[in-house]
Sequence to fold (402 residues):
Amino acid sequence: MRAFVVVLDSVGIGAAPDAAEYGDAGSNTLAHTAAAVGGLSVPTLQAFGLGNIPAITGGDPILGVPPSATPLAGFGAMQEVSTGKDTTTGHWEIAGLHLEQGLHVFPAGPPSFPAELISTLESHTHRKVIGNKAASGTAIIEELGEEQMQTGAWIAYTSADSVFQIAAHEEVIPLEELYEACRLVRKQCNALAVGRVIARPYLGEPGSFARTENRRDFSYPLPEPSILSLLSETGVDVISVGKLDDIFPDSGITESYHVENNPDAAAAVLSLAKRPPTTQGAFVFANLIDFDMLYGHRRDPEGYAKALESTDRFLNELRALLRDDDLLVITADHGNDPTFTGTDHTREYVPLLAYCPKFAGTSLGIRMGFFDIAQTLTDWFRLENLSRGKSFYSCNGFVGVS
Fold:
């Protein structure tokens, strides 16, 4: 028995009811991306029932992805209940947590960061800090990269998310020194409940800088055990793909494929799907990051659309490898509408597609809380239920919201 949860990072499906509180009223990652390119070609997602979801939420249709008369998967949408719209909050809620207070967000600045935090970083590393404000990652490297190369300083910046980010040229500051600086800041940020400290290495020359795939995320400790820990404790193999080993530190992950792009993540999932069955079962938790990192934040709907179509081909390959007792869940952690104002995440519903070869598709409705996925996994692996969430699985198939 296996379960695959594939998170299409930032692939939202329409503004959530509380989107206006986040400045995101009118956002719709999927519908606006499709409209911007004249329609999407995602036949696998369409067959699963992706085009059926807008009728549930009352959102705009997805051009090129009409409703399926006989969807193969359970289809619905999930509304986040935690405070926030970032990677950590979304993934933790998928795994069964609820962050009522939300993680700490630094002000736009400058300065963005407390003086004591900057002083500690400078005194312990003997390097100055430049930046110290909210900024686009690519923009601040273009702005300060040359100075960073000349002085050996740290470029520190934040965003609308709960993050402290440190950028450094790999040929000026070795990667391990960058990671060690992030570990230092991580310890200092725990008292502030900051979601992530992110290492952002880059290469190149002024005018042609490019971030590398040696990014690392240093996450705030989970405030309570997640579904990953529960599954691991009961003997299920817990395998992460993408950046999830960083997002879920000390969470019982038994095997990790740390990759920083969609093609490598897809290849890892396909390789895992080809493995012979084990008696204890396996949970594969994968994140496909390119939608968010390369196209959402950079407001590139064309690139976003191409990534969706490439991922659709991957999902078709994965579907062919699934056994009758396998579960595949496709979802997202937040939105990042590439046609929207600004460069930050958008507070949206996320799609929910649940596929098992032996079950017929049905409407799963709107789920209040991403943690319905975690609760479903407890039923799938026949474990004791969690304290929150409603499962959409029964022994007879998928069920909607009662």
About this structure: The longest strand covers residues 196-203. The domain at 115-219 is CATH 3.30.70.1250 (Alpha-Beta Plaits). The longest helix spans residues 301-321.
